[in-house]
Amino acid sequence: TGNLYYYIGNSTGGDAGYGLSLNTWYMLTQTVDASGNHTVYVDTTSRATNSSINMGSTGTLPLTVGAIGGTSNYWHNGYIGTVAFYNTNFTQSDVDTFYNATKTNFV
Fold it and tell me: What is the mean pLDDT of the chain?
């Protein structure tokens, strides 16, 4: 088991306060709107929110999926089925729809 952590930029983020179990499929979704508000979902449930993202700034770390950027100490030890980026803000309904359409590919 382990905890879900999320980061945007160089340091904004943290512990989503949600434990993940071994050998279990999860859909992790992070949305960020134009105002910098972001929400982290596990499957279809909101687990963390933050409104301190400055979308006009750029970080110095490369995009990293499955690890905390800039370090080799915290890598995901498992499979990542799909990674997607969209130029639109997902609503709760969008997250639900995507989850239901995707889960049959992995469960």
Answer: 76
